[in-house]
TrEMBL record:
Residues 2-113 form the VOC domain. SUPFAM superfamilies: Glyoxalase/Bleomycin resistance protein/Dihydroxybiphenyl dioxygenase (SSF54593). InterPro entries: Fosfomycin_Res_Enzymes (IPR051332), Glyas_Bleomycin-R_OHBP_Dase (IPR029068), Glyas_Fos-R_dOase_dom (IPR004360), VOC_core (IPR037523). It comes from Neobacillus massiliamazoniensis. This is Glyoxalase.
Length: 121
């Protein structure tokens, strides 16, 4: 079974949609002004954005965009930084990762898994 749909409540659908298109390659299939948008990725995942006057996700809530390499994670991080977003440099934690507060009131994790080499001592 695969998760193929997620709905996010956001404070500004248009701004969140533009952000997701620019940095993460999602495409908007349909929208109704600033109240609703349906977005798709290249694998057919459907992300809907619905406007809410107040958005309160738990502190640990986030959505993730896996990348194919550290270089791609670094490139997205640099693009966000150059465009004025408050992002910390990626770190090697559970994966090579960083977080960004997206316009609209939700958090995004950008990451890639790195195979760790095992060495014999």
């Amino acid at each position: 079974m695969k998760l193929k749909h997620l709905n996010l409540t956001v404070t500004d659908v248009s701004v969140a949609r533009n952000f997701l298109e620019k940095y993460f390659g999602l495409t908007c299939g349909a929208s109704r002004g600033n109240g609703f948008a349906t977005m798709f990725d290249e694998a057919g995942f459907v992300l809907t954005l619905m406007r809410g006057s107040e958005v309160h996700y738990p502190n640990s809530f986030h959505i993730g965009f896996p990348q194919e390499s550290k270089e791609r994670v670094d490139k997205i991080n640099q693009s966000l930084k150059e465009d004025g977003f408050d992002v910390q440099p990626p770190q090697q934690l559970h994966s090579y990762t960083f977080y960004v507060e997206a316009p609209g009131g939700f958090t995004i994790e950008v990451f890639c898994h790195i195979e760790r080499e095992l060495s014999e001592n």
